[in-house]
């Protein structure tokens, strides 16, 4: 038997913080790829500390639904799961390369395949593209600029590395006229999105797991979409003669379920058929939405 555990931050203050986790878990559960699928949170129930005890499977794939490597993926989650012998050096990562490591969990007879965060997997670049296509309703975005938005913080340099990683990959892909990484708490600032690109259209995609205070309030106001988020804004909205297509948190895109499965597959889970199922379902759902 094999089980999947998706671990996420959750929130006591934002009831919508856990919604993407449950949605992606439901998508994966429907494929039947795992005998058991569980959601687990730092700030909600079920907790990191207790989740392994709820499983019958001896092989457990733990995938963090976090944007970047850092305090939670390197310290909190391994500690709460009681992973014997955990050493962050086992990931051999420079901030975006975390893959997986197999460890025994103390006081439960299980082998835990602990994976790197969803946000740094290369497949997340595909999710950003899908997010841009779904918000614009266009497959061809070669005339568009793309701004990948991160929080940024001096306390964790890996936070910015994840944003730059995907911006660099998408810049090299040639799918957009121009691609830039922008931040809320670092330079270059998200406030300057409208003046950073020479294109008439710019898609703004926040690399956040869930929509919350930052994506619903701060970023729309900082970009200039509205002076008061409570008044709403159009998509697109013209800012300094540039049409801004604001996509909201990338973690809410259904294709994220594919990235979770990719992480588990990299760690040895037998999920190839599930990956194809999720990709096909996501494409079908996206086509149906575009036709509305």
Please explain how this structure is put together:
Pfam families: CbiX (PF01903). GO terms for molecular function: lyase activity; metal ion binding. This is Sirohydrochlorin cobaltochelatase. This protein is of the alpha/beta class and 292 residues long. It has two domains: 2-120 and 253-290, Rossmann fold; 123-252, Rossmann fold (3-Layer(aba) Sandwich), CATH 3.40.50. 36% of the residues lie in helices and 19% in strands. The strands form two sheets. Strands 2-1-3-5-4 form a five-stranded mixed beta sheet, sandwiched between helices. Strand 6 (144-150), helix 5 (157-173) and strand 7 (178-183) form a beta-alpha-beta unit. It starts with a strand and ends with a helix. The model has no long low-confidence stretch (mean pLDDT 93).
Task: Compose a concise summary of this entry.
This protein has 292 residues and is α/β, with parallel strands linked by helices.
